[in-house]
Structure formats: structure tokens, C-alpha cells
């Protein structure tokens, strides 16, 4: 197995799409979207190959908030026929190593579904434990885009200590 950074080629983009489809059953990405996304110098991805075929990938990027600057492990996928062989663990290990080598980031984080024991094991093998459970509400914003309210605005406060969000 060989793991290397995404190289900006159509081959890597098609490999990511193939792995995503095999893993999740559907993929809404296009090669053009992946190539454009990976042109952002903040966005990083690694692709695992075996026998010239993509078998896994991971993507990551930095986020910055009032609480911390983090390296976010965004998406991890390994073809089901290749799972259980350490590919996901090695992909995450490489992504974490790059992120934590950056001096502008203080933490790393991944949001893993509670019904995804495979990914939970991958992060445990990399020395990480769950720090809490997040319940998400998804909103589709239509029409105008709301403007963020600044701290100090009535009704807005910065969470600290036990009030700090887990995400």
C-alpha cells in the first residue's frame, strides 16, 4: 500500500470518487469539484493506493474560532473490501502528523458518527478518545444569508468553561 498527498491530477480525483461511491453508496462529487477544492492551499487530502487502484482517502483542513485553531479531519473513506487492514489508521495518522506540525494549530478534531464503529476504532488506534457527543440541527438557509452577530451584541455571549461547546 502507498499513501501519498493528493497530487491535483484527474487520476486522484477519480480515485476519491470511486472510493466514496464504494464506501457510502453514492457520491455527489465531480472530478472538477474535487480538483477545485484541492486547489485551496488550506485543504489537504491523502489517497491510499494498492496495485494502482485507489482504496482509501482522508481530507483535512484548518478551522479557526474564538476557542481554538484546529486541524479538522473531515472525511475518511476506505473501500469496504479493504477495511480492517490498517489503511484508515495510516491515512488518519498521516493527516494528523501534518496538521499537528503546523505552528498555528493547537488541536485536532474529527466528528465521527456514533453509529460508525469503524471510524471510532481508527481514531482510537491513533490515540484519541471521544470528548463528547454532538447533536446536530441542520438548517437549509434560503433567501437572504444571515449576518453573524458579534460578541457583546445583546443576546450573544461567548461560551467559556463548562458552557463551551464541544464542537
Strand order of the largest sheet: 1-2-3-4-5
Count of separate structural domains: 1
How do the helices and strands follow one another from N- to C-terminus?
A: EHHEEEHEH
Instruction: Give me the number of helical elements.
Output: 4
Named at the architecture level, the CATH assignment is 3-Layer(aba) Sandwich
Q: Mean of residue pLDDT?
A: 84
Q: Could you state the oligomeric state of the chains shown? A: single chain
Derived from helix and strand composition plus strand pairing, the structural class reads: alpha+beta
CATH homologous superfamily label: Gcn5-related N-acetyltransferase (GNAT)
**Rounded radius of gyration (Å):** 18 Å
CATH class: Alpha Beta
CATH-derived topology? Aminopeptidase
DSSP summary, beta strand count:
5
What fraction strand?
15-25%
- Write down the overall geometry: globular
How far from one another are the termini? Answer: 33 Å
pLDDT < 50 stretches = 155-167
Helicity, in percent?
25-40%
Major sheet, described briefly?
5 strands, mixed
Write the layout of secondary structure elements.
Elements: E1 2-5, H1 10-24, H2 31-37, E2 44-50, E3 53-64, E4 69-78, H3 87-100, E5 107-110, H4 117-125
Parallel strand pairs: 4-5
Antiparallel strand pairs: 1-2, 2-3, 3-4
Helix pairs in contact: 1-2
Amino acid at each position: 500500500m502507498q499513501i501519498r498527498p493528493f497530487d491535483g491530477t484527474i487520476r486522484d480525483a477519480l480515485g476519491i470518487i470511486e472510493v466514496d461511491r464504494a464506501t457510502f453508496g453514492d457520491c455527489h462529487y465531480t472530478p472538477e469539484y474535487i480538483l477545485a477544492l484541492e486547489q485551496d492551499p488550506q485543504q489537504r487530502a491523502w489517497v491510499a493506493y494498492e496495485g494502482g487502484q485507489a482504496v482509501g482517502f482522508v481530507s483535512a483542513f484548518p478551522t479557526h474560532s474564538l476557542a481554538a485553531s484546529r486541524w479538522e479531519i473531515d472525511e475518511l473513506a476506505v473501500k469496504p473490501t479493504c477495511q480492517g487492514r490498517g489503511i484508515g489508521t495510516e491515512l488518519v495518522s498521516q493527516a494528523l502528523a501534518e496538521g499537528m506540525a503546523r505552528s498555528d494549530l493547537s488541536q485536532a478534531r474529527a466528528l465521527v458518527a456514533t453509529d460508525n464503529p469503524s471510524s471510532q476504532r481508527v481514531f482510537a488506534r491513533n490515540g484519541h478518545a471521544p470528548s463528547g457527543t454532538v447533536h446536530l440541527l441542520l438548517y437549509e438557509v434560503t433567501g437572504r444569508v444571515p449576518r453573524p452577530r458579534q460578541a457583546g451584541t445583546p443576546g450573544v455571549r461567548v461560551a467559556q468553561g463548562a458552557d463551551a461547546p464541544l464542537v
